[in-house]
Amino acid sequence: MYLCTRQAIFKAKYMSIKLRLIIMNFLQYFIWGSWLISFGSYVGNSLGFDGVQIGSFFATMGIASLFMPGLMGIVADKWVPAQKLLGLCHLLGALSLIAASFQTEYGLLYTCMLLSVIFYMPTLALSNSVAYNALEKEGLDIVKDFPPIRVWGTIGFIAAMWVVDFSGFKLNHMQLWLSAVAALVLGFYAFSLPKCEITKTTTNKSLVDSLGLRAFTLFKDKNMAIFFIFSMLLGAALQITNSFGDLFLSSFASDPQYIDSFGVKHSVVLLSISQISEVVFILTIPFFLKKFGIKNVMLISMFAWVLRFGLFGIGDPGSGLWLLLLSNIVYGMAFDFFNISGSLYVEQTTNSSIRASAQGVFMIMTNGVGAVLGSYAAGLVVNHYTEFNAGFRTGDWQSTWFVFAAYMIVVGILFAIIFKKK
Fold first, then answer.
1. Which of 29, 82, 144, 269 is the most exposed place for a label (fewest CB within 10 A)?
2. Backbone phi and psi for residue 386, each to the nearest 5 degrees, phi listed first
3. Is domain 13-195 annotated with CATH 2.60.120.380?
4. Quick check: 267 and 249 in contact, CB under 8 A?
């Protein structure tokens, strides 16, 4: 009887902390999904910004990723418990999003969105830290118990996209309000999560070591330098369809034969298939790694990006809808395979003393430097082939997507020739 009671109490505590962390993860990614996919259409179609300006908004995430996660990690380690810092960041991010919702001029809107992502990007790591801490306190297995909780983040992202689509928010500032409300809820909710301890240490580490920048010495190794450079080149492609995908699909509304098609009326729902695909392809990674090895899986990712862009180029919301669907399905392979296999490559080839920092360098090169360069470069390509006309970004979108596909073909071929896996 006593043993059964203890097991019942343990199960109840487990379900309680699991539910609380599911809510946290759902809201964490609901905030992002509320605007990430639809923002390009809002500023491109409703506000009339050009391709470079649109790209610059998405480059803000790369800028923030260069320094904010490291800085906030130091703050969480030394001064402010992670769950409180998570709450503060979301509250400040919510205020920035509210301010952004009132702006129609490029400079002010850009500033507000930059501030919002400066506060948001470090919460991706902070929310994981809070979850790990809570699970450890309950004596649970992080490797086993965290993934089923984290998947609710992806569900939250998809749910936000659907809300934006069916509510008609994708072409107006209400998507920012939806994101802000979710951020306010999570901001206050985070203060109720299990307390994270501050690390008490007397070791004086330099700022370089604290930020993990010592791992940049890996560039002295020719093969690692090549790997990080290609990580940056691939990172340049990661945000292109997030930046311009919905803007592209919305442009078909200028053509009477497509104006009432599902792909135009519910373009954000169509693009949400990409996130569903991510969940599926993550499960296939162990098989592909075992069958083909890390380098070949990375190559598969690169040529999956070729298909992602190429299928956009030849697809349309009418008879070509199946091509757009296939492009969204391929996205999961394109996005997941390089991120996961690249991370594993870093894990296998770096010294344990700088392994965590090396993972940080990998993220900086892909989601930081690569994303910034890619967002601006993609904006220039979009400007070259399209123009703002009567409320739509119209023009030669096919050539635009083919340029991106050609870029990935070149990157993939060069990677196959130059990169030699240890």
1. 144
2. -130, 170
3. no
4. yes
